[in-house]
């Protein structure tokens, strides 16, 4: 059984943060277009998930954050009806519109449905083409284009709802997944491995030296072969030691050399190689079980090509 699921939701296209914002609905169009043109989309199981339940969101986030975002949405709707602004600011580069709440629940719901399907043996692995992204959202905070932490929610869901003992989170976005770190640091059931450009957003990079975190800061202009060497040296031994029963990927593609949001030098072949190494670990320890969820990636052409390369490996194409 080598089926790969492709989860998305129409609500994910309705969230937007204003004209010219790089985290835009066109990102999902670029991915869909590339999968259509390449034929890769024909090999996938296309699925639409229900929105996440708030009880599952609260596996990773505080009730106060959930209440704050819902309250901001309600207030914004009232303001719009009174002729006020169309967006509410969450941080300097992150805002919500009246559809953001539904999009955030849909994005998290996709990772949960993918987790259910993979653990049920209906799929070997899955990719979630969702937005808003998640890895900058911490237990009590939304920031960096992120509202709920889709991957951290799914990882905790696998542990708490499905009874797994050990999972891993792999984050290859150009930005450090500070929100994920905030949620999982110190939880020995979850191993988080990442590389990220440093110094860069978020300020300070990693904030924790907890034993379950393997953070690899790299300087601007680092290329793919250097990243591959670091992965072999630092990620792989820890993943082998942890023996995860499932792997979750924060799949950001903004470390691509064509992406102006970062200054790293990866290309599609590097994302394919990274995915192959993750898949090797998954097949050895986790029955092949992987759920990957979109994070960054803002050059539309590079994003489409990189996701195609990532999915080709997941789907054995």
Description:
The chain has helices at residues 26-38, 54-57, 63-81, 100-119, 150-160, 178-184, 224-242, 268-285, 300-314; strands at 4-8, 45-48, 88-91, 94-96, 125-128, 167-171, 190-197, 213-218, 247-251, 290-294. An 8-stranded parallel beta sheet has the order 2-1-5-10-9-6-7-8, with helices on both faces. Helix 8 links the parallel strand 9 and strand 10. By secondary structure, it is of the alpha/beta class.
Shape summary = globular
Structural class: alpha/beta
Strand order of the largest sheet: 2-1-5-10-9-6-7-8
Strand content: 15-25%
Helix content: 25-40%
Give the low-pLDDT segments. Answer: none
Alpha carbon gap, first and last residue? 14 Å
Write the layout of secondary structure elements.
Blueprint: E1 4-8, H1 26-38, E2 45-48, H2 54-57, H3 63-81, E3 88-91, E4 94-96, H4 100-119, E5 125-128, H5 150-160, E6 167-171, H6 178-184, E7 190-197, E8 213-218, H7 224-242, E9 247-251, H8 268-285, E10 290-294, H9 300-314
Parallel strand pairs: 1-2, 1-5, 5-10, 6-7, 6-9, 7-8, 9-10
Antiparallel strand pairs: 3-4
Helix pairs in contact: 1-9, 4-5, 7-8, 8-9
Outline:
The protein is α/β, with parallel strands linked by helices and 317 residues long. Helix content is 40%, strand content 15%. It is built from nine helices and ten strands.
Key words describing this protein structure:
317 residues; globular; alpha/beta
């Amino acid at each position: 059984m080598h089926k790969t699921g492709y989860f998305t939701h129409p609500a994910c296209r309705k969230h937007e943060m204003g004209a010219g914002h790089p985290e835009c609905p066109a990102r999902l169009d670029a991915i869909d277009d590339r999968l259509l043109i390449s034929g890769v989309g024909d090999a996938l199981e296309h699925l639409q998930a229900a929105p996440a339940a708030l009880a599952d969101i609260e596996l990773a986030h505080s009730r106060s954050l959930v209440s704050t975002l819902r309250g901001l949405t309600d207030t914004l709707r009232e303001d719009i009806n009174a002729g006020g602004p169309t967006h509410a600011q969450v941080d300097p580069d992150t805002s919500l519109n009246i559809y953001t709440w539904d999009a955030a629940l849909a994005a998290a719901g996709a990772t949960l449905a993918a987790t259910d399907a993979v653990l049920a043996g209906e799929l070997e692995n899955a990719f979630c083409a969702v937005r808003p992204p998640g890895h900058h959202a911490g237990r009590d905070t939304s920031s960096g284009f992120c509202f709920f932490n889709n991957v951290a929610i799914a990882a905790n869901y696998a542990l708490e709802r499905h009874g797994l003992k050990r999972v891993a989170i792999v984050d290859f976005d150009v930005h450090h997944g500070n929100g994920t770190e905030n949620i999982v640091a110190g939880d020995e059931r979850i191993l988080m491995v990442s590389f990220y450009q440093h110094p860069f957003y978020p300020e300070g990079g990693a904030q924790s030296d907890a034993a379950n975190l393997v953070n690899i800061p790299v300087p601007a202009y680092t290329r793919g072969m250097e990243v591959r060497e670091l992965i072999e040296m630092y990620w792989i031994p820890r993943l082998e030691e942890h023996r995860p029963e499932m792997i979750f990927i924060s799949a950001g593609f903004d470390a691509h050399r064509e992406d102006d949001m970062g200054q790293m030098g990866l290309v599609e072949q590097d994302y394919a190689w990274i995915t192959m190494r993750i898949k090797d670990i998954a097949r050895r320890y986790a029955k092949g079980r992987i759920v990957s969820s979109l994070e960054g990636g803002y050059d539309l052409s590079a994003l489409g090509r990189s996701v195609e390369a990532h999915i080709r490996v997941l789907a054995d194409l």
